[in-house]
Amino acid sequence: MNLLRCNLYVKIILWMLLNLVLLAVLGCGISWYVMAGKGYDGVLPASLFSTRADSALRVISANLQYRSVLEWEDLLEPHARRLPVRVHLQSLDTESIRDSAIPDRMVEQAKNLPRAIYSFCPSPEVMFWDPMGSTMFAGRNSNVEYGLPPVPPALFRHTNAPSRYWLGRVMYIPDINRQIHTVLVVMESDTVDGHGLFFDIDKIFLLVAVILGVSFLWWLPFVRHLSSPLRRMAKYAEDVEFESFSCVDKPFLHDREFSGARKDEIGRVGYALVAMMQRMNRMLTGQRQFIRYVAHELNTPLAKAQMGLGVLECKLNGDERLRVQQVLRHIKRLSVLTEEVLAYLQAKASMTTPREVSVELCPFLSSIVQSEASDADVHVEVEQGLCLCTDRDYLQRIISNVLRNALNYAGNDGPVVIRAERGEAETVISVTDHGPGVREEDLPSLCEPFFRGHAATTHPGGTGLGLSIVKDCIEACGGRMEYGNLQPHGFSVRLHFPQKKQSHCS
């Protein structure tokens, strides 16, 4: 499952490597099938085998030349002892030399091979009549041609019970009477590589590694051609600030992947992504302007209505007064909503540079509690004299929104605790309630503007801007916010403010 989570670049590279490994496995499997004697008739080009095997066979045949056939087996023994394999001889012309250990099928195939009449080297007693005429020399009084023989094909078989591998070559060896004998010289081994004599395993592995490396380098530019623009698109989409669209006009958007110059599917996706972002920017800008205008226009009549109802409340008694008070509460609630919307939009439109001042937290937090929740069960736990160097207005907006959320969603389930602690590099202010918390699926989106999630059904009337405003303000102050559910119940917001030197505060 971890492989499925990798980016496209890694996936293509891994797929390419798996493809190369598959080719290598298939190649090795086919080679093994052939070498095991199951997928071919046992005849292979001699070039597939090691030159050491060819040299050993030629040395053996050279030492048997111009010697009596009866001595061949004895002459063979010293050479065979120096090799990591057993050596067998089988005459293909006569029954003078026979070795029953050689597979019959191998002997039959050797007899069916085309014959030549060349020896490995001439006898020293032979006189040459044309020593510079060609590479092949003919004797004056002989019908036999001497010289380097052509390379015959190799015979390779695998037998079972017990498992043995046989490598054979047909050699043309003259005896003491200069009579050419067609001899099958066979090497027998219990391993497929003849203990390193049949094949150059290191060279084979090196060749496979070179092929895989060349294939990898061949694929690499194509992989980069596909994955690089996709990664740039993903980076662009991640960097876009939807509140300000600060990434829409960055210089790299004029590259061919985003400008439409690239005509393949990737270029079309990049161009469509930029066009979509620009349309969203225009649409959201218009929506914000409309919301700002509506909220601003509502403030004046709401304030007048609130003032008039306040005067009317003082003149009424009984049920009429209760009805007016109820209307006042609704108007106050509507006024708070419009103020939150305006505060959010104004903050996004022009977030001022924080003015860092030294704020003593104990009286500051107590004053916020007194103004926001004078009748609520709120505990302030702050060490006397603890100060924080930050923007006072931003800090008030941050604490007020977090406290208001805690009171709205969990004020009746126990005390809300505001605690401030000084660490080594930062000061942490936490606001903790004992309510039911937030659903897990809603947690990742709590800081998105106008998002309310499940709270929209349990606590209607909010705007979903509280934590979004808190996030923007604390980031402007150089801090960060963390939030999460508590066990067994409750919700906590932790505000981390960096500690700054007193000289930075005015």
Describe what you observe in this structure.
The chain folds into 3 domains: 164 residues, no CATH class; 110 residues, Helix Hairpins (Orthogonal Bundle), CATH 1.10.287; 153 residues, 2-Layer Sandwich (Heat Shock Protein 90), CATH 3.30.565. 46% of the residues lie in helices and 16% in strands. A hairpin with a 5-residue loop joins strand 13 and strand 14. Helix 7 packs antiparallel against helix 8. It starts with 7 loop residues before the first helix and ends in an 8-residue tail after the last strand. About 4% of the residues have low confidence.
* Percent of residues in β-strands: 15-25%
For the record, the count of structural domains works out to: 3
Ends apart, CA distance between termini: 55 Å
Poorly predicted regions are 126-144
Strand order of the largest sheet: 1-5-6-7-2
Class from helix and strand fractions: alpha+beta
- Strand elements, count: 14
Integer average pLDDT: 77
Helix content: 40-55%
What order do the SSEs take from the amino end to the carboxyl end, as H and E? Answer: HEHHEHEEEEEHHHHEHEEHEEHHEE
Rg over C-alpha atoms, rounded to the nearest angstrom: 46 Å
Total of helices: 12
From the spread of the alpha carbons, the general shape counts as rod-shaped
Largest sheet composition: 5 strands, antiparallel
